[in-house]
Design a protein that fits this description.
single chain; 302 residues; alpha/beta; Rossmann fold; four-stranded parallel sheet; binds 1,3-dihydroxyacetonephosphate; binds iron/sulfur cluster
Amino acid sequence: MTQEEILNRIKGLKKEKKALILAHNYQRPEVQAVADITGDSLELARAAAKTDSEIIVLCGVKFMAETAAILNPGKKVLLPERNAGCPMADMVTADELRALKNKYPGVPVVTYINSTAEVKAESTVCCTSSNAVDVVNSVDGEKVIFVPDKNLGAYVSSRVDKQLILWNGCCYVHDCLTREEVLRVIDSHSGAKVIAHPECRSEVLKIADAVLSTSGMLDYAKKTDAMTIIVATEIGMLWPLKKTAPGKNFIPASFNMVCRDMKSVTIESVLSSLEEERFEIKVPGETGKKALNAIRRMLSVK
Ligand code: 13P
Ligand code: SF4
């Protein structure tokens, strides 16, 4: 089948099965092109929360499909690639979080949405990169347990009046970018603005003009007067950025910033997913119910 035939078949099946295709901003351009909605983690969670579709195809990684499944018990949530995960989500387990909670009794837990359903179920509230500061400010008390991303946690720490107890997790894609690499790119593009995802190290965030979620980057690109923008996040972002602000120049901070799991989803796997209704992501009863409380609480914040 040619790419065009695959795309047409996906569009046909989507209509026939009344399916909703959600795609994260890092997905391949051709996958984003067949999606009904593209966005950052918060936008995808919001879209999943309000859909009437009986089938949701989540083009992204497992925690995103789990979040959609938690919000839609009884609906079919499909992840086109069975093994598309987020390594950071597996850096803290429910047992480890329970042990941390025992060490700090009564301290609320804010959990980044890049986490497993079991960890969400042990949490007070979830957050994403776009609402983390507001979510942390929304919980009671001066101390907050924040898992699993130490970089996002350190960034939030610098913006709130609370003490954050951090976990030693991180995203390998963002954490490998150094200040020196970014400075070299800045040197060869004078006048450029730097935008960075909060999963980057604080040494990178300190030299950024703006720290933003992936969709926050799209807004920034539309509004800024700068014509050249250095982008410190997964390189898949370059496609939606160019589409949103076609006249502007987007320079990757590093070509090494590739998320293998995000890129494992292809239009071929989206087609098989719709045809065979695979791979269904389910979150069992009690875990789903407890995780839903943490997600719902997040959605009520911002
Ligand atoms: P966003 O919510 O900003 O899209 O980030 C998701 C993610 O996995 C970044 O690595
Ligand atoms: Fe996870 Fe990093 Fe990939 Fe985002 S870019 S899905 S945090 S591994």
